[in-house]
Structure formats: structure tokens, C-alpha cells
Write a structure and sequence with these properties.
This protein is α+β, with helices and mostly antiparallel strands and 230 residues long. A six-stranded mixed β-sheet has the order 1-7-8-6-5-3. The structure holds adenosine-5'-diphosphate and magnesium ion. The site of magnesium ion (MG) has 4 residues, from helix 4.
Length: 230
């Protein structure tokens, strides 16, 4: 199953999205508030306190992700347009996700060559992190996260692939739709929306291929900027 994802096109619904987002951010805030109120009562042992704090931190991350991914879509982000060392940015992303991969018994394999594109390093990070996090989450019992780059005819291809649970064709069709998630309470359904937006901002293209119980392959194509003017 293969399709070129162009969902973000249709979604000129930023204001509707804004009200949903404020709603979505209130949920983690409510949880955090509840936890702080409980922590005020001094009757918890250390284990319990640590557990509460852990949940609060997770909820803060969640609120942060929701806002961060929404901002990309709302186009309120200042976009830089500079030559980006893609190899360096991908390696940075890998460093960030390595602890998460280790915790999930996911082995990260790479084949990355030096390459340069024009774009915004911060947004690219967000794009790679959103995709790779999804890949790791799709391999709850471990697996391989494979990341490679290559340059073909002035085009840079970044491939990110997992051998996790994959998607049905229905799920694949909905990828990038705001709030589409199969992760229930754990998901926000905003990560892929931001990914598609970011790739578009950088004149790139995204191809996603997925097969249920086999895995998912993301291929991103960017125009190369060449290393010479770096
Ligand atoms: P979230 O991760 O919060 O659910 P995303 O927008 O990042 O939101 O992803 C939306 C949905 O797309 C996920 O819930 C999942 O069903 C599906 N998905 C995305 N990436 C993958 C992947 N690598 N493997 C399997 N399913 C995926
Ligand atoms: Mg996600």
C-alpha cells in the first residue's frame, strides 16, 4: 500500500483547530493540577511521590508536544531558511531518541551519507523526532529502526523505516489528519500533521508505505542544496 500524503492541503481549518488544541492542552493541565494538589498532602511515601512526579512530567511533555505541533501547522513559527547539514541533524535526532529506543529494545541502524538541504534545522528536528517516535511506538516488543540518506539526481532521500505493527490502508489514508490516533489517551494525533507541514515548508515530499504487522517506511525527498555553498 502506498500513497503520497497531501492531507495538510485540505486542512485550512486553523481556527477550528485552535479551539480543539486549547481543549487538548487543558487535559494535561488538569492532570498536573490534580497531582500537585495531591502532593500537597504530606502522606505519600517516596515511591508514590516519584510516581506522581513522573506522571506530571509526562503530562507536561504532552502539553508541550501538542502546542509545538500545532504551532507548526498554524504557521506562527518563524522559519529559517539556511543550509542544513542533514547528517548532523539526523544524528542529533538519533541521540535524542536513543534512550527511548533502548527502553523499547529497538535497535537503531543507519546508513547516512553527508548531505545538505535548505531549511530550518529546528523544524527538521521536530519532523524526524515525530516520525522516529512513531516508529519506536509501533515496535512495543522491540525491532529495528532503520534510517538512511542518499542523494539521487539532485534530490536527497531520507528513509526512516520500522518493522513494527504497521497500518491498515484505512489508517494510512488518515495519516496526518489532525487528532487521528490509534493510541487512545497516549496519542495526540498531531505529530504527522506537523511532519507533513514541515516537509512541505521545505519543498519536500513524503511517501509512506505500510503493511499491517510488517512495518512502515517513510521516504522524504528534499531538493539538495549541495555542500559547496556550505
Ligand atoms: P500519535 O502518535 O499521537 O498517535 P501521529 O500523528 O504521530 O499521532 O500518528 C498518527 C497515527 O498514525 C498513530 O496513532 C498510528 O496509528 C499511525 N502511525 C504513525 N506512524 C506509524 C508507524 N511508524 N507505524 C504504525 N503506525 C503509525
Ligand atoms: Mg506520534
Amino acid at each position: 500500500i502506498n500513497m503520497q500524503v497531501i492531507k495538510a492541503e485540505k486542512l485550512e481549518v486553523v481556527s477550528h483547530l485552535a479551539s480543539s488544541i486549547s481543549h487538548e492542552v487543558r487535559n494535561p493541565l488538569t492532570v498536573i493540577k490534580g497531582i500537585l494538589q495531591m502532593l500537597k498532602i504530606d502522606e505519600w511515601n517516596d515511591d508514590k511521590r516519584t510516581q506522581f512526579i513522573e506522571i506530571a512530567l509526562q503530562e507536561i511533555n504532552r502539553a508541550n508536544d501538542i502546542i509545538g505541533n500545532y504551532l507548526t501547522f498554524a504557521k506562527t513559527v518563524q522559519q529559517e531558511h539556511i543550509t542544513v547539514d542533514l547528517e548532523q541533524e539526523i544524528n542529533r535526532s538519533i541521540n535524542i531518541i536513543t534512550p527511548m529506543a533502548n527502553m523499547n529494545c529497538v535497535d537503531i541502524q543507519t546508513n547516512i551519507v553527508p548531505c545538505y538541504i535548505k531549511g530550518d534545522p529546528q523544524l527538521l528536528q521536530q519532523c524526524f523526532l515525530n516520525i522516529t517516535k512513531n516508529c519506536i511506538e509501533a515496535m512495543p516488543n522491540g525491532g529495528i529502526l532503520f534510517i538512511s540518506t542518499q542523494e539521487i539526481n539532485g534530490s536527497i532521500e531520507v528513509e526512516i523505516r520500522d518493522n513494527g505493527e504497521g497500518m491498515t490502508s484505512e489508517q494510512l489514508k488518515r495519516l496526518g489528519e489532525p487528532f487521528f490516533t490509534t493510541k487512545g489517551r497516549e496519542g495526540t494525533g498531531l505529530g504527522m500533521m506537523a511532519v507533513i507541514k514541515i516537509i512541505k515548508l521545505m519543498s519536500g515530499r513524503l511517501d509512506v508505505t505500510s503493511n499491517k504487522n510488517e512495518g512502515t517506511q517513510f521516504r522524504i525527498f528534499f531538493p539538495s542544496s549541495g555542500a559547496s555553498d556550505y
